[in-house]
Structures are given as structure tokens and as C-alpha cells.
Design a protein that fits this description.
By secondary structure, this protein is an all-beta fold. It is built from 3 helices and 34 strands. It has one domain: Maltoporin, Chain A (Beta Barrel), CATH 2.40.170.20. Helix content is 2%, strand content 53%. One of its GO terms (molecular function) is signaling receptor activity.
């Protein structure tokens, strides 16, 4: 089945991007949390402890793992317990404790997320939420959509984030085009009113060496009006893939100007240069079960680097016209320059001595401008309290792509024992004609959160106009254009049984344009999704324990599948997919350094309509585990203990079985259980002069489990054990 779930015009075909080297037939190939004391209130500090809303600042004032507020679900400072959808927040303390190195690692312990579908692939942060691909149209940065091109996918450095918010289910009512599975909003680190500093020196297996720094506070001589933040990272590392590297340089300056308690302007910038292997796959011959999962690396260090260079500049502006009327404007310009070079194995000789290979080179240049204007008004009509927001946003993206493919010398593999990687020179293929795609989106939205008695009714509506143009350089006849208009919305109802126990129900929709033409030469209709969700949220009284239970039913229509009339040459937007499931999440702060996060998810996603391949109707989609369980906890010994200064933690990640291919009688992926661990020591216990000095060791896949996950017949190897040792100093 053609598995194009919900891809925007800029992202058509991207769900298969992590499988690049496996598929030559398609393409050859309340929380700004820092370790600093609380600032006194005044002009230079926020007037209250609430979050900067509108997707502009993430949760504020959080210590530990439990967040109370996030603006992502409503673009207002609504408590999580009062939002009518499932929302998870990965706080800065979680990111620090697990010392995450990628976005996939950061969301590993979140319910509903399948982050290991493509195994170890440092090229992309590719994952699914509630069974739907989110990577290319569901990533937001500071409340603004982060579009991507097929290979110009903006990379995320987790050390530059304050928090990560995962909103599960359609979010079209506020954000426009997207995935039925949900969105992930990344909150950048921002200046603080308290001076602080932090330095990490890290080392690990595979010759990993890394240095991090994070500095911030008020600007001297600014009378409490200017604040800065400077965050950076440099890494040099190999990986377990033969001859491959994982190098990165990152720096993110930020500056806040707060001339009064009612006005703030924050400048957010970033530069990132990233080099990883261009192919992370291992050879599999899908027609021969003997070689379904081999340890024969498909790439070659002689020709395999994937370099991404990107930068962004933007701002978040907020002004209180009155205590109950607030205007916000968020803006960002993003540039990504990607150059992918790879070698892949196409076949083995009958005697298993040689492997025939091909090469590919793909370049993408992506430019994006995003703007979101919001006006929030709080008031009352009789006994009903309102929090009303109206907005207009605009996104313009353009990308150019060039591709070239060629042949590589045979690889001598010596009976699958000692391949001669890097022993031969590999010529780069010539790049072909450039293609160019532009897409513009204009959206208007309104939302009213009406509170009457113990009921909270959330009504959200949005209209989008999307225009897409695709053309090849020097060929005026290649130009194709399409335009789509769609209405998305959400209706949610919360009932406060008590101030701490809140059941809810909601219905939400979303859509996404799809590039290409059908058999009749007509543009594909947009794919659409809708969800019915119900659940219960519970803040355990007198504790920092938060529970969230939810059930959901998501339907996606107009999915691209083989055309019923000519399935060989054409696809048609006539398929349907359904995802049903349940989730349970618990986060708890049981004391300083004693934290727990636990999540269970059940996802059953199946094809419900496919006229071109009716035999697939009723089949579960491959690669998505039906059941997952995650648990991570830390414990710090109390001051009175002889072991004071020591802290320990660990996690378990269980993924159940799933089909390995989208065909009848497919073999199944095995269940996988992985363990993670952390141990740390604070040196202030031995000498108060060493306050702020900390030694921390993190181990992922502690037992070095060797495992694969297969999707659509392609198999991906999981990451082996990784050990990171860190010497941290905070002041």
C-alpha cells in the first residue's frame, strides 16, 4: 500500500525518507527552568509566574518532571488539567537527567509516541504519534510551524530547548495543516532575570567528545530592561556504523528587552552545522528470507556524509494593552542547506563474495518565513467567563532540489565477514536539473474558552488557504500549481468534578495538501483527519503527581493509495486509515531529585479503505508497536544520609510486536525491552567550595540489546549501548 499519510506539499514522500538507502525503486537512495535562584519581581522580571503564552515561551517555573501549564494546546496560559486534549511536557530537568542527544531520545518516554520505528538513523528525527507520521508537518518551534523539504529537514539540538510539548491528536483548529497524530512544539531557551552559567564536558564510547555551555542573566547597565542568553555546543564523534561520524556545532544567542512590565521583545537566533552518515541502513534482501536482517552495512565511508547547515532568526513580541487584552506577534526566518551523499548495496553475488552498489547525491536548499499575530481578550458575559483569542498567521516556504545517481565499484565482502569499506575511491554522481517548489499558507483562527460554573467549553475554528507551485528549471511546461482551502476546528468540554479531577471530551480535525496529479491529471484532494477523544486528568491533592488517561478514535481520509484503475502507474487519494487506542501517563515529583514518569499506550492503526488493493483492508500498518510501556525514575539520597550527594536513576522501554510489512501473512517484529541508567554525584558533599560541580554517567540500551524494527518490509537496526560521562559545573 502506498503509505502517504499526511504529507504537506513540502513533505510529499518524506515518510519514506529514513528508508532512503533501502528503496532505490523510488529514489536512489509554568517552565523556563535553569539552575539559578528565583528573581525578585520588578520591571526586569515577569510580573507573575505564568507562562508566556501564544506558543512563545513554554511552561514556566517548573522544577522536576511535572508541568502544570503549557500554551501549546490553546495558545493561552491554560492549565494542562483544563485542556480538552492529551498534552505531555518534557521538562528541562528530564532532558538533563537523561542527557538526551536527539529529539527522538527526548520523546522516548512520552505516551503514544513511536520513536524507534527506523532504528538508529542520525540523519532525521523520524517518529510517529498515535500511528501517524509527524516528522515533516508536525514539528513546531516556539509556536511556529517548522516546514521541511524532502531532505532539508531542520535538525533539533535538545540542549537548546527549555521544554518539549507533545499535543496528541489533530491540532488544525489552531495551527492549520498537520498530522492527525498531533504536533510537537519545541520551546527555545530564553533569557532569564537571574544570572547563571553552566558548562558540560562530555565523553563517551565511539570516541565521542562534546562540550556544552549555557550562560544568561541581565545585561549590566540596562536598568533591568535587557537580558541575554547564550547557549552552545561542539561535538566530534564516531558511531557504530563503519567509518561514520556524528559531528555538530551549535550556538544560539537570545536577547530580551523588557521596557516595562507590560511589554517584552525577545530575539531568538541559532546557527547549527551537522554532519552524519548519509546511509544508516544494513543490507536486506526482501525476496530472500536468509538475508532479511543482516549486519552488512549498506553504506561506505568513502562516500557517505550528510551535511546540514542551518540558521534562524526571529522574535517573540508581547504587549498588554490592558490587564485583560494582550497582543502577541511571533516571527521567524529559517534557512537550511542540506547535502546528502550516500552509497547503497543493491544485490549480492551468488557466492556472497561481492556486492553490487550504486550512489546518490541530493541537495536541498530550504527557506521559510513564518508569522503569527494573536489578540487575547479575557472578560465575562453575565456568569460566563471568557478567554478569547483571535489570530492570523502566514507561512511561506520555498525549496530547491537537485539529484544525481550513479554506480559504485563492487564491495568485496568476503562471505559477509570482512567487507573492504573505504578501500576504493567512489566518484560523486553528476547533479541533474534543479526543481523548485514554493508553498504559501494563510490562516485565520478564533477560539473561545468559556467557563460557566464547573464547565469549560472550548470552541476553536480556523480557515486556511494554501497555494503550491512546483516546477523544473528551464522547463516552463513542467510547472504545476494547486490551491486548497479548508476549515479545521475543535470542540472540547471539561467538567471540574473537583479542582483536581477533570474529565473531558473533544472532537478535532486537521488537513494537509498533497503534491502530485492523479490518473486524470487532477491535483490530489487534501488528506483530512478527525478525532474523538475522551479522558480524565487528575492532580493528586497535596502532591506534585499528575495523571492523564485518554481513549481516542482517529480517522484519516483521502490517503494516497494505488489507483483502482491503473495501480501500476498512478495513485489516487481514496484511501482511509483508522487509529484507535488508549493512553495512561503519570508524572510525579516526590522530593528534590526524586522524580518519576510512566506511560502506557495501546495503538491499533489499520487500513479501512483501499480500492486499489482491497486485500490490505483490515490490515494493521507495519512498524508501529501495538503496545508500549515506558518508565523512568530518579532518586537522590537525602542530606542526612551517608550517601548524600549520590543520585541514581533508570528507565525501561518496552515495545510490543507489530507487522513487519503491509501484506497479508507478514512476519512480525519481535517485542523489545530496553533499559537506560543514570548515576551522578554532587561534589559539594565533599567540599562546599565545589558547589555546582557534578559528575554524571548515562547509559542507554544498558544490556546492549541487538534488535531490528521492520516497516513496509525494510528493516532498521537499533542503536547499541551508548555510554556518556559528563562533568558539569553550574553557578
Amino acid at each position: 500500500m502506498a503509505r502517504s499519510l499526511v504529507l504537506s506539499g513540502l513533505a510529499t514522500g518524506l515518510a519514506a525518507a529514513p528508508a532512503l538507502a533501502q528503496q532505490p525503486e523510488t529514489i536512489k537512495l509554568d517552565e523556563i527552568s535553569v539552575s539559578a535562584p528565583q528573581a525578585p519581581r520588578g520591571v526586569g522580571a515577569p510580573a507573575d509566574g505564568s507562562a508566556t503564552s501564544g506558543g512563545g515561551g513554554g511552561p514556566s517555573g517548573v522544577q522536576g518532571y511535572t508541568a502544570r501549564v503549557s500554551p501549546t494546546a490553546t495558545k493561552t496560559n491554560t492549565p494542562l488539567i483544563e485542556t480538552p486534549q492529551s498534552v505531555s511536557v518534557v521538562t528541562r530537568e528530564q532532558l538533563n537527567d537523561r542527557n538526551v542527544q536527539t529529539l527522538n531520545e527526548a520523546i522516548n518516554y512520552t505516551p503514544g509516541v513511536a520513536s524507534n520505528v527506523f532504528g538508529y538513523d542520525p540523519r532525521f528525527d523520524a517518529f510517529y504519534i498515535r500511528g501517524f507520521s509527524v516528522t515533516n508537518i508536525g514539528i513546531y518551534r516556539d509556536g511556529l510551524r517548522q516546514p521541511s523539504s524532502p531532505f532539508g529537514i531542520p535538525r533539533v539540538e535538545p540542549y537548546g530547548l527549555e521544554a518539549i510539548t507533545i499535543l496528541r491528536g489533530p491540532a488544525g483548529g489552531l495551527y492549520g495543516l498537520g498530522s492527525p497524530g498531533g504536533i510537537v512544539d519545541l520551546t527555545s531557551k530564553r533569557p532569564t532575570a537571574v544570572p547563571f552559567g553552566e558548562v558540560w564536558l562530555q565523553g563517551g564510547n565511539y570516541d565521542r567528545a562534546q562540550g556544552n555551555f549555557d550562560l544568561g542573566g541581565p545585561v549590566e547597565g540596562s536598568d533591568g530592561q535587557l537580558f541575554y542568553r547564550l547557549t552552545g555546543l561542539v561535538r566530534q564523534s564516531s558511531t557504530f556504523l563503519p567509518g561514520s561520524i556524528d559531528d555538530r556545532a551549535f550556538i544560539a544567542p537570545a536577547l530580551t528587552w523588557r521596557p516595562s512590565a507590560d511589554t517584552s521583545f525577545t530575539l531568538l537566533t541559532e546557527y547549527l552545522n551537522n554532519t552524519v552518515p548519509g546511509n544508516s541502513s544494513f543490507y536486506s534482501n526482501y525476496a530472500d528470507p536468509r538475508f532479511q536482517k543482516t549486519k552488512l552495512f549498506s553504506g561506505d565511508p568513502a562516500f557517505q556524509n550528510f551535511n546540514t547547515e542551518q540558521y534562524r532568526i526571529g522574535y517573540a513580541f508581547e504587549h498588554k494593552l490592558t490587564p485583560d487584552i494582550v497582543f502577541r506577534q511571533n516571527f521567524r526566518y529559517y534557512h537550511v542547506d542540506a547535502d546528502l551523499r550516500y552509497t547503497q548495496i543493491d544485490a549480492l553475488s551468488a557466492d556472497l563474495v561481492r556486492a553490487s552498489r550504486s550512489t546518490g547525491r541530493i541537495t536541498n536548499v530550504l527557506d521559510t518565513i513564518s508569522l503569527d499575530n494573536q489578540l487575547e481578550i479575557r472578560g465575562a458575559t453575565g456568569p460566563v467567563q471568557h478567554d478569547f483569542i483571535a489570530g492570523l498567521d502566514y507561512t511561506y516556504s520555498t525549496y530547491g532540489q537537485r539529484m544525481g545517481f550513479g554506480a559504485a565499484p563492487d564491495l568485496q565482502i568476503g562471505g559477509l565477514v570482512r567487507p573492504n569499506y573505504g578501500a576504493q575511491f567512489i566518484t560523486a554522481p553528476t547533479l541533474g536539473t534543479a526543481s523548485r517548489l514554493t508553498q504559501s499558507q494563510l490562516g485565520t483562527y478564533v477560539q473561545d474558552q468559556a467557563r460557566f460554573g464547573r464547565f469549560i467549553l472550548t470552541l476553536t475554528g480556523r480557515h486556511d488557504s494554501v497555494a503550491t507551485v512546483n516546477e523544473s528549471a528551464g522547463d516552463p511546461t513542467s510547472r504545476t500549481a494547486s490551491s486548497d482551502r479548508a476549515f479545521s476546528g475543535r470542540v472540547g468540554l471539561n467538567y471540574l468534578l473537583t479542582d483536581e479531577l477533570v474529565p473531558y471530551v473533544s472532537y478535532a480535525t486537521t488537513f494537509a495538501p498533497q503534491l502530485g496529479l492523479d490518473r486524470l491529471g487532477q491535483a490530489f484532494q487534501p488528506t483530512k483527519g478527525n478525532q474523538l477523544e475522551g479522558g480524565v486528568k487528575f492532580n493528586v491533592p497535596g502532591t506534585s503527581v499528575f495523571l492523564n488517561m485518554a481513549v481516542f478514535d482517529i480517522a484519516q481520509t483521502n490517503v494516497l493509495v494505488p489507483d483502482p484503475v491503473n495501480p501500476i502507474l498512478y495513485t489516487a487519494a481514496v484511501g482511509e486509515v483508522n487509529s484507535r487506542g488508549a493512553e495512561l501517563e503519570a508524572t510525579a515529583n516526590l522530593g528534590p531529585g526524586i522524580n518519576v514518569t510512566a506511560a502506557y499506550s495501546h495503538v491499533d492503526i489499520r487500513t479501512t479503505k483501499n480500492p486499489g488493493s482491497p486485500e490490505t483492508v483490515g490490515l494493521a500498518l507495519s512498524g508501529i508497536p501495538g503496545n508500549t510501556f515506558r518508565l523512568f525514575a530518579t532518586y537522590a539520597f537525602p542530606t542526612a544520609s551517608p550517601l548524600s550527594g549520590f543520585s541514581f536513576g533508570g528507565g525501561v522501554r518496552y515495545a510490543g510486536t507489530s507487522p513487519a510489512n503491509d501484506v497479508i501473512g507478514s512476519y512480525r517484529n519481535s517485542t523489545v525491552t530496553l533499559f537506560d541508567a543514570v548515576a551522578a554525584y554532587d561534589f559539594a558533599r565533599v567540599d562546599p567550595r565545589l558547589k555546582g560541580m557534578r559528575l554524571q554517567v548515562n547509559v542507554s540500551n544498558l544490556l546492549d540489546r541487538n534488535y531490528f524494527n521492520c516497516q513496509a518490509g525494510a528493516c532498521y537496526r537499533g542503536q547499541p549501548r551508548q555510554i556518556l560521562g559528563s562533568l558539569i559545573y553550574r553557578w
